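re the bet — no i am not wrong, look at it urself. input seq straight from the record:
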Amino acid sequence: MNGGAPKAGPGGVAGFTQAMLEETAEAMVARGLRDAGYTYLNLDCGWTSGHRDANGLQVNKTAFPSMEGLIEKVHSLGMRFGMYAGGLHSQCCNRALRGSNDSSYGHWEQDAAQFVAWKIDYLKSDPCGVHAKGGAIGRFNQKWVDAFTKLGYIDKLHFQGDLVCGYKAGASNTCLNHTAAQSNSWRTTGDIRNNFSYVMKNIQQNNAYARFGGP
C-alpha cells in the first residue's frame, strides 16, 4: 500500500484511508478475487470524525477526502461497496472520543438518505449499546428497513442487521424468524476472545442459526 500511514485513532489504533481502500479494490480485481465472487468491499466503523451535525454524519475528510469518489471508484471496478452505521450514543470504535455523537440512533431517515445518495450496496447496522435496552434490537433493525423502504431503496441494499434476541445457542424459532424477516444477514455471536474455546462456542452457535440463512 502506498496510501501513506494513517493517523492513530481512538486507543492509538490506525484506521483505513480512501487510498488504502481504492488500492485494495484494485488488488482484488487484479488477483481474481472479484471474479471468484468476492464482490463487496465493506468499510467498518471509524470513517466519521466521531461527530454529527445538522447535516448528518461528518466524514473524516483527512482519511476520506471524497466518499462519493471512493464509492464511484469501487463501482467502476465492477464491485459493490458497504458502509457501517449504528450505536446507541456513538459508533463503537469512536466511543473513546470526547463528546462523540456519530450514532445513527434516532437519525435513521437522515442517514439512510445520505447512504442512498452515495449509492451504497450494503449496510452493516451495529447497534452498539442498544443491547442494554430490552427488546430494542428488533425495533432498531426495523427503523433501518422502514427508512430504506420509504426511499424506494430496500431492494437495492444488502442489510446486515443484528440478532433480535441476543447471542445465545438457545435462541427461539420466533426470534430467529423475526431476525431473518428483517435482514439479509445478521451477526450471530458476541465478540471472540483469544482462546480456542471461544472459536468452538461461536461455531456451535452458528450451527443453530444456519437453517435460517437465505437470500
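see?? The chain has a mean pLDDT of 87. told u. also Residues 137-150 form the longest helix (14 residues). so pay up
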